[in-house]
Amino acid sequence: MGDPLIELRDVQRRYTLGDVEVRALDGVSLDIASGEFVAIMGASGSGKSTMMNLIGCLDRPTGGTYRLNGSDVAGFSRADLAHLRNKTLGFVFQNFNLLARTSAVENVELPLLYAGVKSKERRARAMEALARVGLADRFEHESTQLSGGQQQRVAIARALVNRPAVLLADEPTGALDSKTSVEVMKLLEELGSSGITVILVTHAADVAAHARRVIVMRDGKVITDGPAEKVVKS
Amino acid sequence: MNVFETTSIALRALKRNTLRSLLTAIGIIIGVAAVIATVAIGEGARSQVEETFAAMGTNLLIIMPGSNSSGGARGGFGSQPTLTWDDLKAIQTEVPTVAQAAPALRTNAQLQSDDQNWATSVQGTTPDFLAIRRWKVSRGVPMSDSDVDSGAKIVLLGQTASDKLFGANSDPVGQVIRIKNVPFQVVGVLERKGQSPMGQDYDDTALVPVSTFKARLSPSLGNYIAGTIMVSIRNSADVSKGQDQLTALLRDRHRIGGNGEDDFSIRNLAEVASAQQQGADTLSALLVSIAAVSLLVGGIGIMNIMLVSVTERTREIGVRMAVGATPNQILAQFLTESLTLSLIGGLLGIGLGLLAAQLTSAQFGWPLKVRPEAMIIATGFSAAVGIGFGLYPALKASRMDPIVALRFD
Predict the structure, then answer these.
(1) For residue B197, what pLDDT is reported?
(2) Which residues of chain B have pLDDT under 50?
(3) Of B49, B31, B8, which is closest to residue B353 (Cα–Cα)?
(4) CATH architecture group of domain A6-233
(5) A199-219 residue pLDDT tens
(6) What are the domain boundaries of chain A?
(7) Residues of A in contact with B325 (CB under 8 A)
């Protein structure tokens, strides 16, 4: 096995809120290899969202190093980070974050638009991604005309359309009922077994149980890291 | 992402709030409309003034005799005849820029037809006068050189004088009228010329040969011309040069040396025209400053609405950044939006301005003159307003932290 896809070394992320210094991440080191299906668990305030923002290149560490695909993001400009997010990362959010009054297929096309893909190819690839999440027939629907589960599947299609190395899902089932939650998790599992690296951030143990590896965080530190069966039971 | 894609995103964003976009653009619409209407109306007024002065004669200089000074009281110009018939001859032959020169002797007299009479200004002159004033006859024939040579008792009537003596639409050619009891045959009627800028009716006049005028209508002053000399200059570019040459010639002929005061004066009608034009220009300047204020207010309106829009769409900005939009792409998106907004305002303003200009020129009977430069400048201005006032909101959007933007409610 060569370099890990994601490599965190003693990563720090500190904020100052007024006079108080908050250590959102306090010396985290871990590796995630290509193709892994990982869940990051923890209560709110444990640092798991900060971790997701860092891994997703929405944020940069204040200390330590983060290497994605072998390159240290510390020296990257905001535009470099944007390119990285566009090409290497896909995001799925708890509240879907689809653009309002915009059709499903146009939402899925968005990353391709910023990648400079021509409109014909853009449409074809977006339709392909929608087909992959089972929504090819709903491509013209706007988000208000779609159910929560369908909206999340459109969001997953958007995250996949640029064929990223890593799919980051932040509480992807947080706004869904249990039946659609199962559908969405099944979809993520399928993607995980198809070779794409899936990183799931959640506070719910039953959601984390879908992953193969679970990392538990508390107070900005990793406290447990191991196979799902072992960690979730304990 | 190319220009078309960015523009189509901008248009869709503006269409989502059609009414708001339109209200925002109103400042620009009014500003640009004011500029377009001002320029068009100003041009119309200018060509109106030019037409009026063209009616008086092109490249026209009027030489008036000078003042006399007796006992320290200085009379005005024309109070003393100082121009001689030899001066006139010299002007005609010695000044290269002069095309024609004609004497204009003037007296007020009662004109009598068979059953009417009318007091008007009778002018004694030569055929050159008609050429200088660009005046043609609408009926009959103009005055000829032989009429002047022979001292013929013929008269050309202005349209107003003709109407008063013979009634409108009648043909007086061949009729005889009496001027100061001397019978004159009407040989022609001058075409209608309208009013001077001061409201004087050019058509209320009668022209007779200068020789007849001197012999029959007014006491002769011997060598001196009891009136003015009208001069036309060959090229309009040479009018002030011609004025200088005439001044030099007359000063020389009248033996005025060094600092001596001219005993004549030369009126340049182009100067009168420019004074008239100044009034119109002042009005234009006023309207343009109103337009500038309106564009400024319009720009602030755009800035305001773009700031609102950026705040409203914070989460959209976050999503776009998360999927890979660079800060520059976000900047371009919002700049294009404000630019599109102001350009649409500018185009609507041009339409409105043209309409206003059309209505105004129809009202005043001016020709409608629209300069394409004005439209290009107006469009450029609205684009500059869009970019200038859209820059801050767009920068604000592009500098957002994607994490904060994504969490925004």
Answers:
(1) 62
(2) none
(3) B31
(4) 3-Layer(aba) Sandwich (3.40)
(5) 999 999 999 999 999 999 999
(6) 6-233
(7) 82, 114
